[in-house]
Design brief:
Number of helices: 10
Radius of gyration: 21 Å
Largest sheet: 6 strands, mixed
Structural class: alpha/beta
Oligomer: single chain
CATH class of the largest domain: Alpha Beta
Strand order of the largest sheet: 10-9-8-11-13-12
CATH topology of the largest domain: Rossmann fold
CATH architecture of the largest domain: 3-Layer(aba) Sandwich
Bound molecules: guanosine-5'-diphosphate, magnesium ion, zinc ion
Distance between the termini: 51 Å
Order of helices and strands: EEEEEEEEHEHEHEHHHEEHHHH
Helix content: 25-40%
Number of strands: 13
Number of domains: 3
Shape: globular
């Protein structure tokens, strides 16, 4: 006798995956079937049918079709699936320590826009940052149209506000190392599960593999780092659309304007007139000229 159950994939190793069974707090280690050579590798966020064997071991039988795949692209056109079924990309930026790196933030927002996934802009470490910088950044991204949340996960400031913004969402934390992603994950309750995973022997993998925490109807994934998120080769057209305030603020003389040296460029005029932030233009220019 064995039982077939619904599970969420938490973290994936070479031949096994940690899965969270419906109604259970702690993830279990599950074997991946090897029978078929072209079985799909699970990724965090996958929904799976698993079989619970009499001896207590778990086998992944079947992966449900994915509603969404978060892809890492490289310039040579290769892709890697980072996570499945995510519906919210949470960009985490510290106001200090490390200093805010707006290029990373803008890259992640463009990534979300090109992948047609909603983004939430989170700033951390308000206790360490300059109030003026904080206010300017909150205003800048809110004006573009993003939902912005300020949180201090270390001291518990506005954790409830962030929890409300994530309610029912299948969210992925992204951002540079040290900005507070794992602190957010813990502040929202993810620690117990991660702790148990390491205790059961995931070992070193906990630092590199993405980790998932079930939250009400949704989930939260703590990702290893932003370096994993390449945009690949992207055209100036796509990039202009991904910087969502550009098409609204600008009308260029040439329809194929790259907003670099062209005459009568509406984007340049909007930057000069303060309708597009210089930092956003700098990010656009950097991304266009240095594809990752
Ligand atoms: N002062 C302060 N420190 C924070 C805050 N959030 C995180 N930290 C600290 O920043 C460091 C890096 O946090 P961590 O969550 O590991 O960042 P991650 O690399 O993005 O996962 C840790 O020492 C945290 O305690 C915050 O809001 N204020
Ligand atoms: Mg971390
Ligand atoms: Zn232009």
């Amino acid at each position: 006798m064995s039982e077939e159950l619904h599970a969420l994939v938490v973290s994936v190793g070479k031949n096994a995956a940690w899965v969270s069974l419906e109604g259970e707090q702690l993830p279990r280690l599950a074997q991946l079937r090897r029978a078929s050579g072209r079985r799909a590798m699970p990724v965090p966020g996958d929904e799976a049918e698993v079989r619970l064997l009499e001896d207590g071991s778990v086998v992944v039988e079947h992966l449900a079709p994915r509603r969404f795949e978060l892809l890492r692209r490289s310039v040579d056109g290769r892709t890697k699936i980072m996570a499945a079924n995510v519906d919210l990309l949470v960009t985490v930026t510290a106001l200090a320590d490390p200093p805010p790196r707006l290029l990373t933030l803008d890259q992640l927002l463009a990534f979300a826009s090109l992948d047609e996934i909603e983004a939430l802009v989170v700033f951390t470490k308000p206790d360490l940052g300059e109030p003026a910088v904080r206010d300017a950044l909150l205003a800048l991204y809110a004006r573009i149209g993003y939902r912005v949340v300020l949180v201090d996960p270390k001291h518990g400031g506005n954790v409830d506000g962030l929890r409300a913004a994530l309610a029912g969402r299948r969210a992925l934390l992204t951002g540079n190392s040290g900005v507070g992603k794992s602190s957010i994950f813990r502040a929202l309750g993810g620690e117990a599960i991660v702790g148990e995973v390491s205790r059961h022997g995931l070992g070193r993998q906990t630092t590199t593999a993405a980790r998932l925490y079930r939250m009400n109807d949704g989930f939260l994934i703590d990702s290893p780092g932003v370096n994993e998120f390449g945009l690949g080769a992207v055209t100036h057209d796509d990039l202009t659309r991904a910087f969502v305030e550009f098409p609204q603020a600008a009308h260029c003389r040439f329809t194929d304007c790259k907003h670099l040296q062209e005459p009568d460029c509406g984007v340049h005029a909007a930057v000069a007139g303060g309708r597009i932030a210089r930092s956003r233009y700098d990010s656009y220019r950097h991304m266009l000229l240095n594809p990752t």
